[in-house]
Amino acid sequence: MLEPLKMIKLLRTSIKSLLAIALVLTLGACSTGGASGLEPFKSQDGRYGFLFPTGWTRVAVDNGPEVVYHDLINSDETLSLVISKLDNEIDLDDLGGPDAVGERLFGEKSVKNPIQLIDAQERKIDNHTFYDLEYSANLENKSRHEYATVVVDRGFLYTLAASSSEQRWLKMEDIFKRVVNSFTFF
After folding, report:
1. Any idea what the CATH number is for the domain that residue 120 is in?
2. What is the rounded CA–CA span in Å between residue 157 and residue 149?
3. In the chain, at which end, N or C, are there fewer CB atoms within 10 A of the end residue's CB?
4. pLDDT digit string (tens) for 20-62?
5. Does 25 share its domain with 42?
6. What is the pLDDT of residues 127-171, one digit of tens each?
7. Whether residue 54 is found in the same domain as residue 9
8. 124 and 153, same domain (yes or no)
9. Could you report the per-residue pLDDT of 64-82, keeping only the tens digit for each?
């Protein structure tokens, strides 16, 4: 038979173990898997949405992008959505392939151009074609890196782009690609 003190000690140890297991299970249930560290954004009209990094703040920009978020700590890290009206009902394919659209947006590849298209890929989701574009910009005293996707829907061209300094790009690359690739229509 156990003494009362040993029994209390055993009970406390058991309770601590159960609490630790409950905490692990709770934290595991709260994890969002591939979207860990990301928050959802949905347009007011419910038409489109995407994920943005947790802790980033939405800012209003007059006569600029439709949506802009930036990191409070690294304020030069941004996420922006530009929506442009197209003259005609066209598909993204009508504007050319990924490389052609990338060059159309950023200029032809040349030593003189400060913006260099690094990669251009096409992906299809549901009935939409997306062009994912990665490029660098060497501006006067800043080097920037950006990952963007462009897609056409209902006569509008949507461009969602995530940008950081070249120094922070390797740290942010995976997150930015998840964010940009999360853009979807509902």
Report:
1. 3.40.1000.10
2. 10
3. N
4. 444 444 444 444 445 679 999 999 999 999 999 999 999 999 9
5. no
6. 999 999 999 998 888 899 999 999 999 999 999 999 999 999 999
7. no
8. yes
9. 899 999 999 998 999 999 9
Residues 48 and 4 in one domain: no
CA 94/CA 90 separation, integer angstroms: 6
Based on the domain organization, do 82 and 11 belong to the same domain?
Answer: no
* C-alpha of 50 from chain center: 7
List beta partners, residue 116: 136
End-to-end alpha-carbon separation of the chain, Å? 65
Q: Are residues 103 and 131 in the same domain?
A: yes
Q: How many domains does the chain have?
A: 2
Segment among 3-12, 90-99, 157-166, 170-179 with least mean pLDDT: 3-12
